[in-house]
Design a protein that fits this description.
GAF, nucleotide-binding, about 725 residues, about 20% strand, ATP binding, two-component regulatory system, about 50% helix, 23 helices
Length: about 725
């Protein structure tokens, strides 16, 4: 049996075996131990013994180890740690247990559990240091993996529950939750419906978080990936970059300053996962490591995928909730707008109301453009949430709208809505007239804008322009849809107001016509009755033949006038019923006009006027002679009625291209406001009350011309007379 001889660290034997055999036996034990065993001398801490397990662990042959110290074999910081522990053992003359001791080997960094023991002589002084090290690297990795798995399960369990109240953004809370399990930093880059990316950034280091946030907001960090990398993400596959070389890092940004900042932050590993919702790609989840030296492994990738999957469901729910809220708010807005629009049938009042309806729910400012009958935008109404800026809107529209390029007018011309989600300098350069106009738009406050047409029953009434300043959200497609719905309701209300006003005007015209008609019909009828009564008395009292004849002729004139009035009313009823029938035949237009001018010569002389005729007919035309005579009769009668004693000029020309007939006078002319409605039914000029008439002659003339496939128009300026031009084809079109 072996026994101690009183000297620490030394064994003796009482057997007869030689000492060499005992040393060989001990060497065999040390050599075959599964743990690294080494001995250092106490003076210089040089290795004097090293077993095979130590050789395998360090990846070095003992010949390269024996006689050397830690400074010769390991990095300086590591060697200093080993020496400090050795000195602690030797000075304290006691065992030191180092539970975790990192050591750099040829196989990489390993973690050891080391016990160091002093070997002392008979005097109790340390002579050697014995070390026994167990490699616990795999055990530590397993423990770390289990710890990380437990932490990730906790994170995933929290991700399953809503991270934010209903309708609120869950991304900031999710980014915080993922740290540091997923990485040193977490980013969400989400593509909104407008196409503009939105970034959410979190980091374990607050200072680095702010730097990363600025970098992501000012550069296209993720969008700059190569096409193949983007394709991987779009296909739903994670993308792992564990060794990011300078070239790859530089490709993330085209901006030199952003590239420098990215290089300074020095990410050495990136893990990207697609955020895929139920029906669309929502964005990208990015984990990065720029502090921890560990690369991303399969466990990291699996966690990132599960985290992204659960978060995408929450994002989808948030999106659907917001869409539901937005739809409900839009319906309330449209309902309230329709109720306010229905409260008035005054056209001008409605035009002024429209811009106020859109504020502040749909816009910060609004302009309602109204299309006039001639196709020009002359009327408008404005509103701004800041009343002090409303005059700027008025100035902008008043100075720059007519004939300008600004988008607010385009929908009325094209009948297509316009959406400018971002109003930048490039857009302003394109639509503004000059630098002053551009500055005015900026001062009004326009970061996003849209414009929609206002229509009713296929007719464009105008357009509505809306805009928001930089403080509000950018317009998206759903905002444009809401604006179109509002414009449709505005169009219906304006059309109803217009129809109401037209109905009121028609009622007034009817009442006026009945009053005029009763007067106009009563006058010749009363005169005819008086003439017949006088004639009867004259016959009884013995009037001469010539006196009776004169009275009879006067009665005939009044009856003829009465017949013309009744015929006019009958023509109107036929036209309204679509029963105006043409009796076509070959006519000589020049001969017909010559005969009519001769017939009006006496009446012209009576009112002090004169009719001049110029004719040039190369051929006949096919027309209804009685109806063409009716047109020319109305034109000559009007000219003599309103222009006398100024001269009248009649010109007739028939060529292979068609017939042209004009009646021009040198009278006072026609006011523009009367010219626009001259050919309407029951319309009479400003001086018609002094001249009589039902206001049907020109209306009937237009209907006759159009029935022949021709046109009639009036040309006039106040003080320069008037000209009526009739143009007819050689033959009416087939019905």
């Amino acid at each position: 049996m072996a026994k101690a001889d009183g000297e620490p660290g030394r064994l003796v034997t009482d057997s007869a075996a030689p000492l060499e055999s005992t040393a060989s036996f001990l060497d065999s034990i040390v050599e075959n131990l599964p743990h690294m065993v080494f001995v250092k001398d106490a003076a210089e801490l040089r290795f004097v013994l090293f077993n095979k397990a130590g050789e395998d662990l360090l990846g070095l042959h003992r010949d390269a180890i024996l006689g050397k110290n830690d400074d010769d074999l390991f990095p300086r910081e590591q060697a200093m740690f080993f020496v400090a522990k050795d000195r602690e053992v030797l000075s304290g003359k006691r065992l030191v247990d180092i539970t975790e001791e990192p050591i750099q080997t040829r196989h990489g960094l390993r973690v050891l559990h080391t016990k160091k023991i002093p070997i002392v002589d008979h005097a109790g002084q340390p002579r050697f240091l014995l070390g026994i090290s167990e490699d616990i690297t795999e055990r530590k990795l397993l423990e770390e993996r289990i710890r990380r798995a437990d932490e990730r399960q906790r994170v995933l369990a929290q991700t399953t529950a809503p991270l934010a109240p209903a309708g609120e953004d869950p991304l900031p809370a999710a980014a915080r939750l993922a740290l540091p399990v997923g990485g040193d930093g977490c980013m969400f880059l989400v593509e909104l419906a407008s196409g503009a990316p939105r970034a959410v950034v979190a980091h374990v280091d607050a200072a680095r978080e702010e730097r990363w946030r600025r970098l992501v907001e000012t550069s296209n960090l993720v969008e700059r990936f190569s096409g193949s990398s983007r394709a991987v993400l779009e296909a739903g596959q994670p993308l792992v970059l564990n060794e990011i070389d300078p070239a790859t890092l530089a490709s993330f940004s085209t901006d030199a300053k952003a590239a420098e900042e990215l290089a300074a932050l020095g990410p050495h590993a990136l893990l990207l996962v697609s955020l895929r919702g139920r029906a669309q790609q929502l964005g990208t989840l990015v984990f990065l490591r720029d502090v921890t030296a560990r690369a991303f492994d399969e466990d990291d990738r699996a966690f990132a995928e599960r985290f992204a999957q659960r978060l995408a469901g929450d994002l989808d729910n948030t999106r659907l909730y917001r869409e539901l809220e937005r739809a409900e708010a839009a319906q309330r807005f449209l309902g309230e707008a329709a109720e306010r629009l229905a409260g008035s049938l005054d056209f001008d009042e409605l035009v002024g109301l429209v811009p106020r309806l859109a504020l502040p729910f749909l816009a910060d400012w609004c302009v309602m453009f109204l299309l006039e009958d001639d196709g020009q935008m002359r009327r408008f109404a404005v509103a701004h949430v800041d009343p002090s800026r409303a005059p700027m809107l008025v100035e902008s529209v008043g100075r720059y709208s007519p004939g300008s390029k600004q988008p607010g007018l385009e929908p009325a011309r094209t009948q297509e809505p316009i959406l400018n989600s971002v109003v930048d300098d490039a857009l302003l350069d394109r639509v503004c007239v000059d630098a002053d106009h551009k500055d005015l738009v900026r001062r009004i406050g326009t970061a996003t804008a849209m414009a929609v047409p206002v229509r009713a029953r296929g007719r464009v009434l105008g357009s509505i322009s809306l805009g928001r300043g930089s403080g509000g959200p950018l317009y998206q497609s759903h905002d444009l849809t809401l604006a179109v719905a509002l414009a449709d309701r505005v169009g219906i209300s304006l059309d109803n107001a217009r129809l109401y006003q037209e109905a009121q005007a028609a009622l007034r015209a009817r009442d006026e016509f009945l009053s005029i008609a009763s007067h106009e019909l009563r006058t010749p009828l009363t005169t005819a009755c008086l003439s017949v009564d006088l004639l009867a008395r004259g016959l009884q009292s013995g009037w001469t033949h010539s006196a009776c004849t004169a009275r009879a002729e006067g009665t005939q004139k009044q009856l003829a006038r009465l017949k013309r009035l009744v015929d006019g009313l009958l023509d109107v009823s036929r036209i309204a019923a679509g029963k105006l029938v043409l009796e076509l035949g070959e006519i000589d237009l020049c001969a017909l006009c010559t005969e009519l001018v001769d017939r009006f010569a006496e009446e012209a002389r009576r009112v002090g006027s004169e009719v001049h005729l110029r004719v040039s007919c190369a051929r006949r035309i096919r027309a209804d002679a009685m109806r063409i005579e009716q047109v020319l009769t109305n034109l000559l009668a009007n000219a003599l009625r309103y222009a006398a004693p100024a001269p009248i000029h009649v010109q007739v020309e028939v060529t292979e291209g068609g017939a042209r007939l004009s009646v021009r006078d040198e009278g006072k002319g026609i006011a523009p406001k009367d010219l626009a409605r001259l050919f309407d039914r029951f319309e009479r000029g400003a001086t018609s009350s002094a001249h009589g008439g039902l206001g049907l002659g020109l209306y009937i003339a237009r209907q006759i011309c159009e029935a022949h496939g021709g046109t009639i128009r009036a040309l006039s300026e106040p003080g320069r007379g008037a000209e009526f031009v009739v143009e007819l084809p050689l033959s009416p079109p087939q019905p």
